[in-house]
Amino acid sequence: MLNASPNRAPGLAIAALFLAGSVAFSAPVAPAAAPAPAAARPQMPAITQPVMFNTPEADKILAALQVFPADNPWNEDISQRPVLKNSVEMISLIGPGKRLAYNLDMAFIFVPGDQKKVDVKLLAYPAESDKGPYPMPDNAPVEGWPLDGRSLAAAQAGKEDTDRHVIVVDPVNRMLYEFYQGRKTPAGWESACEATFDLKSNRLRPDGWTSSDAAGLPIFPAIIRYDEVERGMVEHAMRFTVHNTRNAYVYPATHRASRKTDPNLPRMGERFRLKANYDISSFSPHVQAILKGLKKYGMFVADNGGDWRLSVAPDKRIKGLDELGRLKGADFEVVEPTGPNEGPRGH
């Protein structure tokens, strides 16, 4: 039986949808060196206390952190995958003339390997949540902070009925903990659900289970971050939302959140990529890094929300994002999905 999931709207009002003629360009800088291969990653720095996502300390951790194995779908080069036979029809339903947009939404925090674990009260989907306790630090950021202008304490205790994702990463043990509608109360943390991911493994959520995303996918591996755009390329698949999805999901998603059956609507986990012939040479460096990643790794349909909205860390160091509004839905194509025994995983 289909497990019901919330039809999740975009997490924040601080999303940006940009129209032609209102594009702001960043000053050009010298191109950064290419990212180092996994084998050449630096040693993980010592982590003795929680580290916030938008800091130089976090950049060093991210440079050392292998997020999922190299043959994981998030790390898979899909630039040569065949185009899905109904790609044009699917993009037509989403909106070929709609502009690419972004949400400055997904903050995260790193914790030490020995971070104290605490209980979190699970309110809506305890049967589809991984068991606690969880290494939730007192200063865990909630989706929307710090760009919402509130203090961290006010953001943690907020009453608004939004996605309120909370993302906690243990880089030493390579474990990921993601919460949907996380909230800190006088009695402790509570959440609608929790999904734990082993970043050392390709194991998926159980079939039919949701996560903090309606597709049952992790969020952290998909976030556009400062450290990678500064290096020159986003080296993983990204996540985006569309308003209407199909009552279906495709690998590596595990969950659906729609009753609609039109075969030209995207499934949860549907993978899109920027067309190879799209000229990115006029974009500023950080945006070029994103567009290179969209050509090579693409982006997954991860949740119901605004059309063509990418998730970006709310990090003021990322520059030029307004330029994404120059792209339209018609600049993308849908690719044939891979499976658990396909691509690099099949060898």
Tell me the series of helices and strands, N- to C-terminal. EEHHEEEHEEEEEHEEHEEE
Query: Between the first and last Cα atoms, what is the distance in angstroms?
Result: 34 Å
Shape: globular
Give the uncertain stretches in residue-range form. 1-36
Could you give a short account of the major beta sheet?
7 strands, mixed
* H/I helix tally: 5
Mean pLDDT, to the nearest integer, reads: 90
Helix content: 10-25%
- The computed structural class is alpha/beta
Indicate the multimeric state: single chain
How many individual β-strands?
Answer: 15
For the biggest β-sheet, the strand order reads 1-3-14-11-13-12-15
Global Rg: 19 Å
Strand content: 15-25%
Written account of the structure:
- The protein is an alpha/beta fold.
- The chain has 5 helices and 15 strands.
- It has helices at residues 56-64, 87-94, 152-157, 226-231, 285-296, and strands spanning 15-17, 51-52, 101-104, 109-110, 121-122, 166-170, 175-180, 183-185, 188-191, 193-198, 238-242, 271-274, 299-304, 309-312, 332-334.
- The protein has a 7-stranded mixed beta sheet with strand order 1-3-14-11-13-12-15. Strands 2-4-6-7-10 form a 5-stranded mixed beta sheet, covered by helices on one side.
- A hairpin with a 4-residue loop joins strand 6 and strand 7 (175-180).
- It is globular, with a radius of gyration of 19 Å.
